């Protein structure tokens, strides 16, 4: 198309909570995925939006020794979450006929938009501009 795709990496971050979210992002072209808020929640964050005030009531985002004592998180919680996320992602990819996340990147034709188009929030929404399958030259990633 414009010769840029093989010189960039598309990253997706924000509201990635399930393996399905990761697969949809990959099908839309993402190659890297960020999990920030989700990891904080797994560690016990209750989204008080106090991170910048050093008054996190559950001790996730504070340097206050009294508040840090309330922290009940464990790194294994994040490890378990990521393992389950990876497993769900693998299961969905297999259902779609892909052997790896790399194989799925950019395959918008695997997305089923029928439910989205009939949902009351998306009624009348034309998704074709972002779901257009681009014909790439042979050998392009």
Automatic annotation (TrEMBL):
Q: Which Pfam families match?
A: Glu_synthase
List, alphabetically, the InterPro entries matched: Aldolase_TIM, Glu_synthdom, Glutamate_Synthase
Instruction: Mention one GO biological process in which this protein takes part, according to its record.
Output: glutamate biosynthetic process
Domain named Glutamate synthase is located at 2-98
GO molecular-function annotation terms? glutamate synthase activity
Signal peptide (UniProt feature, chain positions): none
Family assignment from sequence similarity: Belongs to the glutamate synthase family.
Query: What is the protein's given name?
Result: Glutamate synthase domain-containing protein
Origin species, per record, is Paludifilum halophilum
